[in-house]
Amino acid sequence: MIRATGLGSGLDIDGLVSGLVAAEGDPARERLLRDEGTITSEISAFSQMNSSLLSLKLASDALNSASAFTTQKVSSSAWSEVLPTLSGEAAVGSYSLSVTTLASAQTLATASTFASVDTVISTGTLSISLGTPVYTNPTDTTYASFSAASGVAAVDVVIDSTNNTLGGLRDAINAADAGVNASVVKDGAEYRLLIASAETGLSNSISISVANDEDLDSTDTLGLSAFAFDGTTNSLTQTRGATDAAFAVNGLALTSSTNSVSSVLDGIDLELKKTTDAVTIDVTYDDTTIADNVADFVSAYNEVVSTIGSLTSFDAATGIAGDLQGESIPRSALASIRDTVTAQVTGLSGSLDRLNDVGILIQDDGSLELTRSTLTGLLSTNRDDVKELFGGDRTSVVTTDGFSGGLSALLDNYAGTSGLIASKTESLDGRIEAIEDARERLETRLTDLEDRYYRQFNAMDALIARLNSTGDFLLAQLDSMPAANRDKK
């Protein structure tokens, strides 16, 4: 649309059109913006309410689990000697544990030293096996016999011209994945090769035999045979023998191939760290943590009460209302939750059927308060009934929901992806989209209105220009008439 210049009329046509369009559009824009702000505040408020309800559901569900009131803790009288951890449900009680021997991995070393890591050695094949040895005598470090581990094949390590150095042998052994680790250590000015079992335990002892030694003798102590240790050729020196851990639980003697023991006590893993005469392992119920979880539920409930109260409040003195004041969903949710909290839980076989039975008391302002001493006392004397109150009875043919199950079902009606709040929010989102559509229609209408105004003012400006032109012509004609004629007028 061509904008009018106002040359014909002398008017500020742009200013006039802008003012007229603004007078039409600004109130509508402000109304849409105001409506959008109100709806956005409602969406935010419902999101805040939904978050508090989900937190309450999470805290309630934590009291509905099978282990909620049988949470355990384990302690050691000497953590630096025996480190226990819970791996499942353990039998509550005390255990006396002594450790005679720790499990260790075997280490073999070359008897002779080498000038450097790059010292050339003989070629051939090392065959490495893991298994259980029988020593010549209890104080000896050589094998009388060796039984390879069942189902574990020997691993051949080929030493040829590409790797026939001390360092090359080390790298070839490590690359073979034979259950051993090789390293070169400096001994004074020279070097030795160490070969150690990757795992502890007597059954992970090492046997190394040699074949195809370059010097044509695989049983002497020369060439590649210098790295043999199999009971026939014992060129390597055992610097540390493989041992099983030897320990006793309540006097019962036991062994383990590792210092990490997980199959002796149900639900308890033991890490043997030092030899020791007697360490006491105690397994008890962790009533402090249990009471903390109940306290978390009470706090989550109080947060719901506070949040909904704030969102639905109205201050008569200031006239300020909460974003959800007048909405039915928050009032309905809070009333239903309060009814559930104060109601009797039916269908239970125990003696406890209300939250106030376990020290959860409702206050004058509608909040809850936990008397921890009441709860912890009942955990000591009546744990099963406390557990049933919250978690229901799942041991019988017909299962019964406890308090937590009932509250969780109620909260699902309001919170989450398919609750009333989600439906309400979806409706509010639709209204936001409708406002966006209305805003687009308004801007289109105002653009059309602006074009119409400009057309009208253009026509007026052109008309005035023509009138001015005609007037100027007539004045010019009058000015050109003889003076006598003009005087006769």
Identify the overall geometry. Answer: flat
Structural class: alpha+beta
- Total strands: the figure is 20
| SSE arrangement, N to C | HEEEEEEEHEEEEEEEEEHEEHEEHHHHH
The oligomeric state of the chains shown is single chain
Q: What is the rounded Rg?
A: 46 Å
Taking the sheet with the most strands, its summary is: 5 strands, antiparallel
What is the helix tally?
9
Q: Give the N-terminus to C-terminus distance in angstroms.
A: 48 Å
Low-confidence stretches: none
**Average pLDDT for all residues:** 90
Biggest sheet strand order reads: 1-16-3-12-13
- Give the amount of beta strand, in percent: 15-25%
- How much helix is in the residues? 40-55%
Features:
four-stranded antiparallel sheet, 20 strands, single chain, 489 residues, 9 helices, flat
Q: What would you note in describing this structure?
A:
There is one protein chain. The protein is α+β, with helices and mostly antiparallel strands and 489 residues long. The chain is built from nine helices and 20 strands. Strand 19 and strand 20 form a beta hairpin. The radius of gyration is 46 Å and the shape is flat. It starts with 12 loop residues before the first helix and ends with a helix. The mean pLDDT is 90.
Structure summarized in a few sentences:
With 489 residues, this protein is an alpha+beta fold. Helix content is 40%, strand content 24%.
Present the secondary structure layout.
Blueprint: H1 13-62, E1 72-76, E2 82-86, E3 93-101, E4 107-110, E5 124-135, E6 143-148, E7 155-159, H2 166-175, E8 180-187, E9 190-197, E10 205-211, E11 236-240, E12 245-249, E13 252-256, E14 260-265, E15 268-272, E16 276-285, H3 287-311, E17 314-315, E18 320-321, H4 328-342, E19 360-362, E20 368-370, H5 372-381, H6 383-391, H7 403-414, H8 420-480, H9 483-488
Antiparallel strand pairs: 1-16, 2-15, 3-12, 3-16, 4-9, 4-11, 5-6, 5-7, 5-10, 8-9, 12-13, 14-15, 17-18, 19-20
Helix pairs in contact: 1-3, 1-7, 1-8, 3-5, 4-7
